[in-house]
Design goal:
Layout lengths: L6 H16 L9 E6 L3 E6 L4 E5 L29 H4 L8 H21 L5 E5 L3 H4 L8 E4 L3 H10 L3 E5 L13 E3 L3 H4 L5 E5 L8 H7 L5 E5 L8 H4 L5 E7 L2 H9 L4 H4 L4 E8 L10
Parallel strand pairs: 5-6, 5-8, 6-7, 8-9, 9-10
Antiparallel strand pairs: 1-2, 2-3, 4-11, 10-11
Amino acid sequence: MLDQPTPAEAILRETIAGIETILADQIDDIRIERVVVGLFFTGVKLDSGAAGACATPLRAIPEAVCCPSSANALPFSGKLRGRPARGLLSETGAANGLRRAIGIATMNALADMCWERRPYPGVRLQRGVDAYDAADIRPGDTVAVVGAFVPFLKSLKKAGQRFTVLEMDPATLKPDEMPYFRPADQAGAVLPEADVVLITGTTLVNDTLANLLALCRPDARVVVVGPTVSLLPDAFLRRGVDVLGGIRITSPDLFLDVLAEGGSGYHFFGRVAEKIVLLRQAAYQTPEAA
């Protein structure tokens, strides 16, 4: 009996299948030009000029020690320049965290090319919009945050909003945020009660996203946010996501330079990348159903 893909792998596989369909006449000719594994984010630039990013899962990488054990962490022994981009898509399913991050960053770079090629009826792209604002949180809403996503926590506290934050590592929270904390393994109790669910895109890297989405109420407003989020929305929207908050990389080489210097969103937004949101519209249908 063949092994079945995990739910998270299913999202990645569906996204990759969409990329291969949209770029069918071009994908085999696209090569990797540059890869940077930064402290916070991993970035990939293609020879087409498109670029993509993914959170670097350092805490989940026991191999991140010098030197023999880390030598096998990167695909092709780190010799990525000139490799076919399509070949790296298989790394999205790698058990090794660094390999997985490079694969997802490559996938996101290709997805950026797809957005220019294929329209998405019922999905609106807005530039320079914060995903928190797009979530349209109302004073009486019960809000659940998955992952200690600092900008969301700041905005929720400032608004005096009622919320719960599910986090695997409570050390990432500030003392004044601890009253809102619940362990990540309590998601089954917290998410079904939430009117708005805000999920960090790093859940795609650690194989938890699809399971979390399955716990959300059908009427909840669900937001997935972060540079890890793809511009190819189909697999996310099919699972109930209403808002995807990601990035468009406007200056790929400078963006990768920022990552190489240990930079984060505070350093690249407004300079070499812009925030974007993809909003589900009432008339949305997946291209297969349209």
